Prior knowledge:
The chain is α+β, with helices and mostly antiparallel strands. The chain has helices at 19-27, 58-67, 75-81, 86-92, 135-145, 157-161, 207-223, 265-279; strands spanning 2-7, 31-36, 45-48, 71-72, 101-103, 116-120, 130-132, 149-153, 163-169, 172-179, 200-202, 233-240, 246-252. The strands form 3 sheets. A 5-stranded antiparallel beta sheet has the order 11-10-9-12-13. A 4-stranded parallel beta sheet has the order 2-1-3-4, covered by helices on one side. A hairpin with a 2-residue loop joins strand 9 (163-169) and strand 10 (172-179). The longest helix is centred in the C-terminal third of the chain and has 17 residues, at 207-223. The radius of gyration is 18 Å and the shape is globular. The relative contact order is 0.18.
Amino acid sequence: MKVVLASCAALPEGDGDEDALISALRRDGVDVAWQPWGSPVDADLVVLRATWDYTERLDDFLAWCETVPALANPVSVVRWNTDKSYLVELAARGLAVVPTSVVEPGEQPEFPDGEFVVKPAIGAGSRGAGRFTGHAEAQAHFEALGVKALVQPYQSSVDAHGETALVFFAGEYSHSFHKGPMLVQGLSESESGLYVEEKLRGIEPTDAQRSLADRVLDEAASLLSLDRKDFLYARVDVVEGADGEPLLLELELTEPTLGFKYTSEDAASRLSAAIRRTASR
């Protein structure tokens, strides 16, 4: 069985988070290798892992995904998930989502009172995201972005509690890790320039966070006419709202960091098993 982990030219072998996964796959008899996206690939399964420059060439990236016969996650999922406007769709289904408005280039944003965030609808690694209180400054940022953007009230709980990322493999919960606040001073970009360096550590989610994450996966699968087991991997990022209840910040189904460094080796084994099941179908 041959499995390719798709990366990008700037990070041809990822950022190191998949080291445990590669070890688990090789232990389980899988021929696994990295390959930057964009060129033809021959494998039983291609798993999107470090394709973090896709935001700069989205049309090319999606066109390449269409050519890959065995892609995880499937191209229909990738096409939907690379545009964060999906948050509005999930909110319309009654899920607890950070309030989100989508603004097209040339439109006039309606900025909320207090602190708020303006970020590209198609983006990764927190690049292009800004935190504002002044409308004039936010307007200038939006115009400088020149792309479809999201406007969201800033959740002040993030400063104290950060985010909780819940990871699922083939629809089943695997593990969680904590992400420190991203829109604060002092954080730097990675050497590749593709993402902002994050402060991560392992964490156990609350029952409420688990419940929300499960509902998010179920609703996303329903929207896409899939079973949640069709998501080889998923990461549900939640924050605490003003009432203390969890809110969905992002659903990562394309190329999320999965936090293998911050959990037990069993997590890599679980994904290895899911990859082998998917590749053998």
